[in-house]
Amino acid sequence: MSQHERVALACDSCSPDEPTVHEVLSSGGGLLTLRCTACGHVHKEAPPEEPTVERKVVVSQGGESLTTTVEAPPDETVQVGEEFVVDTEEALMAVRITDLETAPEHRVDQATIADVTTFWTRAVDNVRVNVTLHPSDGGGDETRSLDLGVPGDHAFTVGETEEHGDERFTVTGLVIRDDAEGYPDRTLDRRRDSAVAKDVKRVYAVDQTTDAWSAW
Ligand SMILES: [Zn+2]
Asked: Ligand 1 centre and the CA of 28: distance in Å?
């Protein structure tokens, strides 16, 4: 004999205000057919809503940070690298988990939401990427740095030339962030190796900006 799933709901026959245990006889059309175990009354109801808990979320974006909250089911497991959408005063933002705080000064890579006190995250819709540019003539150690703002899904590929405003450079290497998954190494430097900007900590490139001018 199959064991019926049980849910706690009010029974309009014997207990309209306090939940009683009901057996789920069947489900269909978004409704459950239920039998009250207290009085035997059979009725159809919408399934009870999943309980949620509210948790603090700190979002860092380009050196600044803001705080918001998220509603989530307490039983769900989350881990560093996962992304979700939060509602902030300004906009909906896609964020990636960088740390899960479960107690003061205690951060873990994976936890049940019930145990999480604060989600530490960073915005991934638009990101800032550090670019280290080496001169194309290989001259000395005159590197310079760029702080580039790009969409999070912008792809950088080793061997390809990028143009951003007045800046022009050819990618020679990519350093991958610790919270990014699916890459064979943390440093990519083979031709056609590629990564999206939200996964990239630093781009190494050859500066083509001055070449464009000297060519004239
Ligand atoms: Zn009842």
From this structure: 21
Q: Are strands 110-112 and 144-151 parallel, antiparallel or unpaired?
A: unpaired
- Contact call for residues 126 and 150 (beta carbons, < 8 A): yes
3-state secondary structure of 208: coil
DSSP 12-32: TTTEEEEEEEEEEEEEETTEE
Tokens of 131: 């670019």
Separation of CA 150 and ligand 1 centre (Å): 59
Does residue 54 surpass a pLDDT of 80?
Answer: yes
Q: Distance, CA 74 to ligand 1 centroid (Å)?
A: 29
**What phi, psi does 138 have (nearest 5°)?**
65, 10
* Mean pLDDT of all residues in 45-69: 90
Q: pLDDT tens across 77-132, in order?
A: 999 999 999 998 878 999 999 999 999 999 999 999 999 999 999 999 999 999 99
CA of residue 3 to ligand 1 center, whole Å? 19
How far apart are the C-alpha atoms of 107 and 206, rounded to whole Å?
A: 38
Could you tell me the distance, in angstroms and rounded to a whole number, from the CA of residue 46 to the centre of ligand 1?
16
Beta strand extents in 62-154 (DSSP E only): 64-72, 77-79, 83-87, 92-103, 106-108, 110-112, 118-123, 126-135, 144-151
Residue 35 Cα, ligand 1 centroid: separation in angstroms? 8
